[in-house]
Amino acid sequence: MDIRQAIFQRLHACSSSELKEIIESGIASKEETVLPGLGVLFETYYNSLSSKDELLDSLSHLLK
């Protein structure tokens, strides 16, 4: 099983509040082991967008 499959299997059927808790606790832990999982979620979200411009503009502003 690859990391993407493992992430989706772990998060399958999570409610939005459960997902929020998982993401926020992962970020708060500052553990680098969480980064691949967050990256998989970001990749999935990014790929689902019909227009990526707004997200890219927001990220660009955060990086300035």
Automatic annotation (TrEMBL):
Pfam families xrefs: SSPI (PF14098)
Biological process according to GO: asexual sporulation; sporulation resulting in formation of a cellular spore
InterPro entries per the UniProt record, alphabetical: SspI
Keyword tags: Sporulation
Name of protein: Small acid-soluble spore protein SspI
Species, as recorded: Faecalibacillus faecis
